[in-house]
């Protein structure tokens, strides 16, 4: 039997007022479509209506976006938060390598983060935390030198 004949039989078996979802469910019921089915569902001869609804739900909830890109719609940082995060990363990266860069980048991160927090930008507190983390080694080193001179 050809594909056209099988498709005609499936379509002819549908009621006259059927919609596209019913056609897709019928194709799953006859296992002509296997997209989104688990291995267990592929081995079963007859799928129940609940199992077909589960497959349809899985297909509707899936996304064509890669997993690492799915959250980018909901997170749109402002300019201050972005500047603060870049400055915070620079401050942390250069904390042990070349501290004067950290001394410049950390205050920029704090100021940009504070502006971002003031403007209610999402995750604007992160640059402030990054600046604190990057300055912690310097503060520890300086505190040892201050104790030395006492």
Strand % is under 5%
For the biggest sheet, the summary is:
none
Q: Mean pLDDT across all residues, rounded?
A: 83
- Please provide the count of β strands: 0
Number of helices: 7
How do the helices and strands follow one another from N- to C-terminus? HHHHHHH
**Percentage of residues assigned to helices:** 55-70%
Shape: rod-shaped
- Global structural class: mainly alpha
Radius of gyration from the alpha-carbon trace, in angstroms? 30 Å
Counted up, domains total: 2
Distance between the termini: 96 Å
Contiguous low-pLDDT stretches (5 residues minimum) are: none
Keywords: Membrane, Transmembrane, Transmembrane helix
Transmembrane segments: 78-95, 101-117, 124-143
């Amino acid at each position: 039997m050809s594909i056209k004949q099988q498709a005609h039989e499936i379509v002819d078996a549908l009621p006259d007022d059927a919609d596209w979802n019913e056609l897709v469910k019928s194709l799953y019921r006859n296992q002509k479509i296997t997209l989104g089915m688990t291995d267990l569902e592929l081995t079963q001869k007859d799928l129940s209506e609940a199992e077909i609804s589960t497959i349809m739900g899985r297909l509707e909830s899936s996304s064509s976006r890669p997993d690492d890109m799915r959250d980018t719609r909901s997170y749109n940082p402002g300019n201050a938060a972005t500047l603060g995060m870049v400055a915070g990363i620079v401050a942390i990266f250069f904390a042990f390598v070349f501290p004067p860069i950290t001394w410049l980048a950390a205050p920029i991160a704090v100021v940009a983060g504070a502006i971002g927090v003031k403007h209610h930008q999402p995750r604007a507190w992160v640059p402030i935390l990054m600046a604190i983390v990057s300055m912690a080694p310097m503060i520890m080193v300086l505190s040892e030198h201050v104790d030395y001179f006492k």
